[in-house]
Amino acid sequence: MEDTETFTLLPLKMDPQSKAITSTSGSRALQEELATLNNIHRSLLTLDSPVPPPPIPVNPKRSANITKLRESGNNEFRKGRHPEAIRFYDLGLQMALTRPAWEPSGLVRDEVAGLYANRAQAHMAMSNWVEGSVDAESSVEAKKVGNAKAWWRKGRCLMEMGRLEEAKEWVGRGLEMEGNEADLVGLLKDIEEKSKKA
Fold first, then answer.
1. Which GO terms describe its molecular function (predicted)?
2. pTM (whole model) above 0.70
């Protein structure tokens, strides 16, 4: 078995006219691979129709559907129907996370961060502190800066679970990322007061 840590320089040459790649190596496997590669290259050059352009970078219908699912979840949350809100956020997350790889990752991170943060809020409304904590942390992982709500929600969940030291550390990290954001400062005071009583 060949060592994967070893680099072997292969004697490859490209014909300037035909762009065919050849090798002086006696390796039969290499010759077969080069023959396949050259055949693919020739077939692309002899196509009757031009090669199709790459897909558009962002599918606007998918973006609109993700936004619609998030808004539907927000509407259900405002009506107090938290399980339904979670269902809409789940669907939005599935759609956002299955975007094709060529679409910008920054777009996916923004969509996912918002959906996880909203789903965390819905879990918190039902006192599902563990689920809320996981979703809030997932939101922060997707978008660390400019996501104060998710930092606050994870800290609040940790505080409600009685994990005060972790909550204090988490909110401290959130303050480093978000500056002196008022909600985080207030939560840190609440955690410190609760720690003194414990």
1. Hsp70 protein binding; Hsp90 protein binding
2. yes
Total domains, the chain: 2
Whole-angstrom distance, CA of residue 54 vs CA of residue 47: 17
The pLDDT assigned to 159 comes to 95
Name the residue among 192, 136, 138, 128 with its Cα closest to residue 165: 192
In the predicted model, what is the mean pLDDT of the chain?
90
Alpha carbon 117 to its chain's center: 13
Query: Shortest CA distance to 114 belongs to which of 150, 63, 65, 155?
Result: 150
Residue 25 belongs to what domain range?
A: 12-45
Looking at the structure, tell me whether residues 30 and 94 fall in a common domain. Answer: no
Window from 62-66, 88-92, 149-153, 176-180 with minimum mean pLDDT: 176-180
Quick one: which of 179, 131, 182, 137 has its CA closest to 155? Answer: 137
Tokens 């009583």, residue? 197
